[in-house]
Design a protein that fits this description.
heterodimer; A: Ubiquitin-like (UB roll); five-stranded mixed β-sheet; two-stranded antiparallel ribbon; 7 strands; about 35% helix; B: alpha/beta; two-stranded parallel ribbon; 20 helices
């Protein structure tokens, strides 16, 4: 066993300086906790050869406003790969969720996922009557700020126009669902 | 002077506008204090918790312009949790209740609500100018109130705020009869803009001098706007994507040619680089160029643009040697990192800084992010540019030494502070020992603001600074090994400063408590977001390290609006 320990100590390494986490140790020795950066910078890590350094909160000292704006450009071009995340709220639930619309190919997949996420069921969709047979109705807010019933427009149009989802429940839902 | 009637003295005082000078005047004698009080037009409050509105109004009953700053500087880098404070509402309420004829309000790092903006818009008949920098908490509904109710508004300047954008109708709230607009900056709004309302507004604003558009204003709209406002001096371009529409481009070029007063250019939030050439005809007049948000503009286009800009005084961009050779009048430069991970961007090194210092003798303010630095380069820069007032250098990797000699950068920064006798603001970075602080304490006699990160070895470092820099106003330190001994050595020093920030250092709760006891005129705030880490009474509390300490002098005691995670000792 001892031999193995010594071997490690004498091992020749060809890594770049800093590969051995020396940097990270120094960096974290003065901070009280191992916080990770708040920004979503981590997602932009790619194939750069210097090894990923530990993310430090608030470093480099660039205003969040500027960080967000410069990354917007990158994010837009990666939109397809990064996904279209929208908020989903359910009446009565204590907190919201987020889903990636680009993961689904159509309404049935989306509705199934929502049903599983929030443990409810939507009922049967018909163009005339909306969703029947359930207290829950899935709706979304479009670009104009209006609340629309999910399922009326073609899927692609829906994905482009959808800003957020809301699962309505109870009497409010009934009004919407009964084709007023 | 004492034999002149008050009106004469007051008239003389009118020519004294700097805050420092007015403060000096007020200290001469009782009668000057009184005259200065009643004639003070502009009040600057660097820390909104150092004083309260009631006392402000008691001392200066007749002011017209108020500048207020809220959160500490490190809030810009997410080090101050949401909800910390800096609320403007109580100020506006108090001013509205009084009879002060407020005409201008300038806020930085404060929390502003739609309610505040509504109250502001309704309470001051002659309100003319609203400038909000790095603020948050409001939406375009608040802007709609300002637009609707401020009949004499001249400036609406929104710089880098977090605004909840309810999409575009606030612009149509300016009445048709409203024609006094001089400055309009809404570059930070994320949503769609009502282009028709914008064009009509610009068309009926003959005094418009500064216009900064947001992302949602496309090329053809820009052309129309510039055709309506050829008198423009300061332009922030919104979206600059070329839609392959040569007619739009031609119209734009024609409109730009007429803008002979244009001196300052910024924006290009979404820029197709080959369109920049449309601006070449006016470049020779530009004194200020800010391309820091134009992520898509690279090398050659940038170089072509800058080559045309012979008169540049203020610039923020990425192409440096060209700047050095072309912009002889340059006074202020900011170079931001394109790659915030520090992995790429090898184009910005010490060479760029040296080139700039050699080529631009009038340079006095610089903010420079780079991968690496050497002592030799800094020594050269110091020799070339002894006129620096602001020198902020950020080497992206913490603790990084001189990349040639592997030495700390003490000597380099030492050369800067020794040569630049007027240095007022300094940010240091890279590998630094206590030695650099010895130099700073010895030579930086005019230094007012110092930012330290990942630097120093012992308490001595901080002590050198506190003992040496007599004019220090704001000291902000993070991730450096300074502790209670340094903090407590000279408590009275903090009365001469606006504030001290220390995060991830070695100060303990016991030390902070001792400080608070010794200095009741200080607010000593412990910011602790981690509930698990609660600073409870236990045997070891004295030695428990404080994550974030923010202390500031105040004449009004503990603030009442502190959130639960802020503990004021």
């Amino acid at each position: 066993m001892d031999e193995f320990v010594n071997l490690k100590a004498t091992e020749l390494r060809l890594g770049l300086p800093g590969t051995n986490n020396v940097c990270e140790e120094r960096v974290s020795c003065n901070s009280n906790s191992n916080k990770r950066a708040l920004q979503a910078d981590a997602e932009n890590e790619t194939e750069t050869s210097p090894p990923r350094k530990a993310q430090i909160v608030g470093w480099p000292p660039v205003r969040s406003y500027r960080k967000n704006n410069i990354h917007t450009k990158k994010n837009e071009s990666d939109l397809e790969s990064q996904g279209i995340y929208v908020k989903v709220s359910m009446d009565g639930a204590p907190y919201l969720r987020k889903i990636d619309l680009s993961c689904y190919k159509g309404y049935s997949e989306l509705l199934k996922a929502l049903e599983m996420m929030f443990k409810f069921s939507v009922g049967e969709y018909s163009e005339r009557d909306g969703y029947k047979g359930s207290d829950f109705v899935p709706t979304y807010e479009d670009k104009d700020g209006d609340w629309m019933l999910i399922g009326d427009v073609p899927w692609e149009m829906f994905v482009c126009n959808c800003k957020r989802l809301r699962i309505m429940k109870g009497s409010e839902a009934k009004c919407l669902g009964s084709g007023v | 002077m004492n034999y002149f009637p008050d009106e004469v003295i007051e008239h003389v005082f009118d020519f004294v506008t700097s805050h420092k000078d007015r403060h000096s005047i007020s200290l001469v004698c009782k009668s000057w204090f009184k005259i200065e009080r009643y004639s003070r037009q502009n009040v600057f409050i660097g820390n909104c918790y150092a004083i309260n509105p009631e006392r402000l109004l008691r001392r200066f009953p007749c002011f017209k312009s108020l500048t207020l700053k809220g959160k500490p500087h490190f809030a810009d880098f997410n080090l101050v949790p949401h909800g910390w404070g800096g609320f403007v509402q109580p100020w506006i309420e108090a001013l509205a209740r009084s009879r002060v004829g407020l005409e201008e309000l300038r806020l930085k790092r404060m929390v502003v609500t739609d309610e505040s903006l509504e109250l502001l818009s309704r309470s001051f008949v002659n309100f003319k100018s609203l400038v909000l920098v790095s603020c948050e908490g409001f939406s375009t509904d608040g802007l709609a109130s300002i637009a609707s109710n401020c009949r004499h508004l001249q400036d609406l300047d929104l710089q880098e705020n977090e605004i909840d954008d309810h999409r575009g109708q606030w612009l149509s709230c300016f009445p048709e009869t409203y024609t006094s607009l001089v400055t309009l900056n809404f570059a930070c709004l994320e949503g769609e803009t009502n282009l028709v309302a914008l064009e009509r507004l610009v068309a009926r604003s003959p005094n418009l001098r500064s216009l900064k558009l947001n992302r949602a204003v496309p090329l053809d709209a820009l052309a129309r706007l510039m055709a309506c406002a050829p008198q423009i001096v300061d332009l922030g371009v919104g979206s600059y994507e070329d839609e392959q529409d040569s007619e739009s481009c031609l119209k734009l070029q024609a409109a730009i040619r007429k803008c002979t007063s244009l001196r300052s250019l910024s924006g290009f939030l979404e820029a197709a680089p080959h369109c920049l050439s449309a601006f070449h005809p006016v470049c020779h007049n530009l004194t200020s160029l800010n391309l820091s948000y134009a992520a898509e503009i690279h090398g050659s286009h940038l170089i072509k643009l800058i080559e045309h800009c012979k008169k540049l005084q203020r610039i923020g961009d990425k192409g440096l040697e060209v700047v050095a050779s072309t912009c002889k009048e340059l006074q202020e430069l900011r170079v931001f990192p394109t790659d915030l991970q520090g992995g790429g961007n090898t184009a910005v090194t010490e060479d760029g800084l040296v080139a700039i210092s050699a080529g631009c003798p009038k340079l006095h303010s610089i903010l420079y992010f780079c991968q690496q630095m050497t002592n030799a380069a800094l020594i050269t820069v110091a020799k070339n540019c002894p006129n620096f007032i602001r020198f902020r250098l950020c080497i992206l990797e913490p603790h990084k030494p001189d990349h040639v000699t592997s030495q700390p950068l003490d000597e380099g920064f030492g050369a800067i502070v020794q040569a630049c006798k007027n240095l007022k603001r300094l940010s240091v970075s890279g590998l630094l020992t206590d030695q650099v602080f010895l130099y700073i304490g010895m030579y930086a006699t005019e230094l007012e603001m110092l930012s330290i990160a990942f630097a120093g070895d012992t308490d001595k470092g901080m002590l050198y600074v506190l003992n040496g820099c007599k004019k220090m106003r704001k000291l902000e330190i993070r991730d450096s090994p300074f502790g209670d001994a340094a903090l407590l050595a000279d408590v009275n020093k903090y009365e001469t400063m606006r504030s001290l920030w220390m995060s991830s250092c070695e100060v303990t709760l016991g030390g902070c408590k001792r400080l608070a006891r010794k200095a009741p005129w200080l607010n000593v705030e412990i910011i602790n977001e981690n509930d698990n880490n609660r600073m409870e009474e236990n045997g070891y509390e004295g030695r428990q390290k404080v994550d974030k300490l923010y202390l500031y002098r105040t004449v009004v005691g503990t603030r009442v609006d502190a959130p639960p995670f802020v503990w004021i000792l």
